[in-house]
Write a structure and sequence with these properties.
Elements lengths: L3 H4 L13 E3 L3 E3 L9 E6 L2 E5 L5 E4 L2 E6 L7 E4 L2 E6 L5 H4 L4 E6 L6 E7 L12 E8 L2 E9 L8 E8 L5 E6 L2 E3 L2 E2 L4 E4 L4 E2 L5 E6 L6
Parallel strand pairs: 9-13
Antiparallel strand pairs: 1-2, 2-7, 3-6, 4-5, 4-7, 8-9, 10-11, 11-12, 12-19, 13-17, 13-18, 14-15, 14-19, 16-17
Length: 217
């Protein structure tokens, strides 16, 4: 957890903000701290930010924005240019760690993103020695992973079940994973969902797609 000015020191507006914070450099938390309020005035640094719950995008130019903040929902946003691995929560942390992954690619203005996943047994004190490290990258019409280190034996039992690509505004006509065509779903909000996968997390992958042309439309 860190204040906004750690990640955006060039923006003087962030210096006095104490009602929002970041997790890492990619997750923005804007909690509702006022009684009987269902809105939050949140500052969004320049760039693309996506709603964590709906994956809809909000382009900003470094400004304050009033956003809904119901009592049962915390406003959370993903920074464009980030890759976020997600797992469905289970009854406890041991079971959750075995859940399949969803890899969320939140694209920036030039349709790029990057991120890293670190895995180990969660118990050993020798951090990094027996671990698996996977780097993810997005470029226009292409996603990929690169396994930089694979020393944790538990990684072989973990899989990727879903890709969510946020910020695509030309509808794909075909998608392939490791050269094989796959089914997909594209929404009006510019999100591409690729589901039903069973990819080992500790193996490299490449995802590509073709955009729908004017003739196809």
């Amino acid at each position: 957890m860190k204040p906004l000015f750690f990640a955006f020191p060039e923006k003087s507006e962030t210096l006095l903000i104490d009602r929002q914070f970041l997790i890492g450099d990619s997750i923005l938390i804007s909690p509702n701290l006022f009684e009987n309020s269902d809105m939050v005035d949140a500052y969004f640094p320049p760039g693309a930010w996506y709603d964590f719950w709906t994956y809809t995008r909000q382009w900003t130019s470094g400004k304050w924005t009033r956003i809904p903040a119901a009592l049962d929902e915390i406003p959370i946003h993903i920074r464009g240019g980030s890759v976020i691995p997600r797992q469905v929560p289970a009854l406890n942390t041991v079971a959750t760690r075995k859940s399949p992954f969803e890899i969320v690619f939140a694209l920036d203005a030039v349709e790029s993103a990057k991120g890293q996943l670190y895995l180990d047994d969660g118990e050993s004190l020798d951090v990094g020695k027996e671990s698996t490290i996977v780097e993810f990258r997005a470029t226009p019409r292409r996603l990929s992973s690169s396994v930089k280190q694979d020393l944790w034996s538990g990684a072989k039992d973990l899989t990727i079940q879903k890709f969510s690509v946020l910020g695509i505004y030309k509808q794909p006509s075909a998608v392939s994973v490791n050269g094989q065509p796959v089914s997909f779903n594209y929404t009006d909000q510019g999100t591409l969902f690729i589901t039903g996968l069973n990819l080992p997390i500790n193996k490299d992958f490449i995802v590509t797609w073709r955009e729908t042309t004017a003739a196809q439309q």
